[in-house]
Backbone:
């Protein structure tokens, strides 16, 4: 297993550290990282695909369980904003995975607006 950590989208928002995990058998070609950055600004979660992605699942869960889940295929870079204001404050997890077995994950705290 190879684990790589990198910073998130640099802006006025708080960065969410994302850890990439790649697992593959010795006879399989190496897999690719999921090109994503994440930030949180109060209750607004920013998900920023830096380049084209195909069949990437994004799941966000927190004190209320899974609050967001979506599959993405984008022909170019794309940003998505997820409004978390209807959900309770607390610890949240974000998980990305694709059909090739690549995974990326991170955690953040949603605090009162």
Residues:
């Amino acid at each position: 297993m190879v684990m790589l950590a990198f910073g998130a989208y640099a802006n006025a928002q708080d960065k969410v550290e994302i850890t990439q995990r790649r697992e593959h058998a010795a006879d399989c070609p190496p897999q690719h990282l999921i090109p994503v950055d994440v930030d949180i600004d109060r209750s607004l979660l920013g998900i920023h695909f830096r380049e084209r992605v195909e069949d990437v699942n994004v799941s966000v869960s927190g004190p209320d369980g899974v609050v967001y889940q979506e599959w993405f295929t984008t022909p170019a870079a794309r940003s998505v904003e997820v409004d978390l204001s209807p959900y309770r404050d607390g610890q949240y997890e974000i998980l990305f995975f694709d059909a090739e077995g690549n995974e990326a994950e991170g955690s953040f705290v949603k605090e009162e607006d």
Summary: Confidence is low (pLDDT under 50) at residues 1-11. The longest strand covers residues 53-62.
